[in-house]
Amino acid sequence: MCGIVGIVGKDHAEQIIINGLQRLEYRGYDSAGLFVSDEKQEHLIKSQGRIKNLQEKVANDVNGTIGIGHTRWATHGKPSEENAHPHTSQNGKLVLVHNGVIENFEELSQKYLAGEIFYGQTDTEIVVNLIASFMENDGLSTKAAFKKAITVIRGSYAFALVNKDEPETIYVAKNKSPLLIGLGTDFNVIASDALAVLDQTHEFVEIADNELVTVTADKVIIENQDGETIQRDSYEAQLDASDIEKGTYPFYMLKEIDEQPTVMRKLTQEYRDDQGNVNIDQELVKEVADSDRIYIVACGTSYNAGWAAKSLIETVTQIPVEVQLSSEFGYNMPLLSKKPFFIFLTQSGETADSRQVLVQTNRLGFPSLTITNVAGSTLSREAKYTLLLHAGPEIAVASTKAYTAQIAMLAILTQAVGEIKDKKANASFDAFHELSIAAAGMEAMVDEKDYLANLVEQYLSTTRNAFYIGRGNDYHVASEAALKLKEISYVQAEGFAAGELKHGTIALIEEGTPVLGIITDDKTGPHTRGNLKEVESRGANTIVIVSEDLAREGDQVVLPMVHPLLTSLVSVVPTQLIAYYASMQRGYDVDKPRNLAKSVTVE
User: Fold this and answer.
1) How far is the C-alpha of 264 from the C-alpha of 545, rounded, in Å?
2) Is the pLDDT of residue 119 over 80?
3) Higher pLDDT residue, 453 or 31?
4) Is 3 helix (H, G, I), strand (E, B) or coil?
5) 374 has a pLDDT exceeding 90
6) How far is the C-alpha of 107 from the C-alpha of 105, rounded, in Å?
7) Which of 355, 523, 538, 577 stands the most exposed, by the fewest C-beta atoms within 10 Å?
8) pLDDT for position 597
9) Arithmetic mean of pLDDT, 541-563
């Protein structure tokens, strides 16, 4: 959600900012803008819609050695140029960009800015004028006024502030929202995601919550709330700009679907030692093994991945598992067991809903693990343990390879814990061997693109509604399949437990409604087939996605055989491709669906 890019100390800041914002397009946005200055002239340019609209408004004479830019995903006020960032103070001196949500912006406006007239409806416009009022009314410097504003603000934020009278300095602060400092030679950059500025630097410095940072071309000064200077080592981002290129693919999503077998093999390589054993921190393994209940906390696709792994973990480790929605769990925490262990699943490591749960579990003293794709992310830093997915950047808003990587990572951890907990249950499960088989099965499914594209054209080309059904683990994959279909093709898709159809949902079935059944379990498969017959008799057009050993004549999608606890890794792949082609055939932007953002950094 939203993106920030800034630079000080380098010519053509405007182009560097635009290039960086383009690399952040995947995060989701509805408007964009930038401010640049070269000490002689300054330019503030904003536009609604895509970054190309902004670029078209940047004239040849626009140049700067300092600048800040932003892509906005609307939270306060409709998408418009007036509400787009950067925002300026009414005295014209201060320019601010902001990611996050200010919870008390109305109170601040009434207390400090009564009578002021604002141009837009954003909380950010309140903040920039609040800082200006502290400068004017209290006689404070830019930094002191910025610091005072931060002390009275409640909410999440990543701020980048420029005073036009100080065209060599960017002031930066964050709370809950991600922001980094990138170090260059005679210049420095800021970004909400390292991917934005990899063409400028690979050396970064993290910012902690509630710190204030002064950034100039040759210096970065970090201070805490007490004004004490903080010394912090930099780190090198283990990414390459080529990692975020599409290559010959029309969309990132298709590229990322194709990468999933490679991700399975990469995880095996990263977490298996030379003797073939699981190579994971033994303190982590022991803490999980000693727990009396595992709580998986996540949102969206990661939540579905948690459900897909629940049966696997319980079967092999004999530890009960609960899967909880972050947005609900944090504010309605249930009675917890005596020795809980918390696992946070998050592709970006910045998910605000999950972080607010982690803050609470840390306060309660419970051990936690973050499984994420992004090293050094907020949830990674704040959890006791981290396991990385090694999936490479995931650019498409609709997550695919992170989902399968999370399940695979949990399978590897499960084997390590199972070796301690229950030798008998663990003896029949070799995670690395089974993941190699799953990788081959996934490879076979991604090779079925043309067939699946034709299937979509036949069954889903004009529908407004669709249903996925399944039982047990197939139900959890159905939930993820429906999420993919709805978020990128805008088909109103739902995933249901097949047996629940007759308890209400079957009333929605009408002539031509597509119903896709997932069958990978021999115990429940006959029942799901029965449910498919029930909807067929009411006019539904059905598609069967079924494991090879359970397939019958006429089944449309047949899945290669894998371990019964890992069927989700293979059964989800055709559903990802179905969603992809349903979106593409409608002419939509597969990678950037409307109203959605890749990294959800507000609650």
Assistant:
1) 22
2) no
3) 453
4) strand
5) no
6) 5
7) 523
8) 59
9) 96
Q: What are phi and psi of 410, to 5 degrees?
A: -65, -35
pLDDT value at 147 more than 60: yes
For residues 244 and 251, what is the distance between their CA atoms, to the nearest angstrom?
A: 12
Name the least confident of 14-28, 160-174, 286-300. 14-28
Q: How far is Cα 103 from Cα 123, in angstroms, rounded to an integer?
A: 9
Cα–Cα distance, 99 to 542 (Å, whole number): 44
Segment among 44-48, 168-172, 239-243, 532-536 with least mean pLDDT: 239-243
- Which entry of 2, 10, 147, 486 is annotated as an active-site residue? 2
Q: By C-alpha distance, which of 187, 166, 135, 179 is closest to 16?
A: 187
- Mark residue 404 as left, alpha or beta (left: phi above 0; alpha: psi -120 to 50; beta: remaining): alpha
The answer to whether residues 267 and 417 touch, using CB atoms and an 8 Å cutoff, is no
Element holding 215 (H helix, E strand): strand 212-215
For tokens 């800082």, the residue is 131
What is the rounded distance in angstroms from the CA atom of residue 443 to the CA atom of residue 264? 11
Q: Is the pLDDT of residue 566 over 90?
A: yes
Element (H, E) at 300: helix 300-317
- The pair phi, psi for residue 102, each rounded to 5°, is -90, 115
Whether the predicted pLDDT of 462 surpasses 80: yes
Q: Which two tokens stand for residue 303?
A: 């939540």
HEC assignment per residue over 316-369: HHCCCEEEEEHHHHCCCCCCCCCCEEEEEEECCCCCHHHHHHHHHHHHHCCCEE
Catalytic residue among 10, 164, 310, 598: 598
Contact 303, 323 (CB under 8 A): yes
Strand partners, 278: 272
Mean pLDDT of the chain: 91
What integer is the mean pLDDT of 507-533?
94
* Angstrom distance (rounded) from CA 319 to CA 487: 34
> Cα-Cα-Cα-Cα dihedral of 485, 490, 492, 496, to 10°?
20
3-state secondary structure 490-558: CCEEEEEEHHHHHHCHHHHCCCCCEEEEEECCCCCHHHHHHHHHHHHCCCCEEEEEEEHHHCCCCCCEE
pLDDT of residue 35: 95
The string of pLDDT tens digits covering residues 290-314 is 999 999 999 999 999 999 999 999 9
Average pLDDT on 448-458 reads: 95
Mean pLDDT over 44-54 rounds to: 89
Is residue 239 within 8 Å of 32, Cβ to Cβ?
Answer: no
The secondary structure of residue 603, as a DSSP letter, is -
**2 catalytically annotated:** yes
* Cα–Cα separations (whole angstroms), residue 253 to 20, 343, 468, 488: 20, 26, 21, 10
**Would residue 598 show up in a list of annotated catalytic residues for this protein?**
yes
Binned at pLDDT 50, 70 and 90, residue 421 comes out as: confident
d(CA 121, CA 79): 10
Mode of pairing for the β-strands spanning 188-191 and 180-183: antiparallel
Q: How far apart are CA 588 and CA 388, in angstroms?
A: 32
Backbone angles phi, psi at 315, to 5 degrees: -65, -45
d(CA 464, CA 486): 10
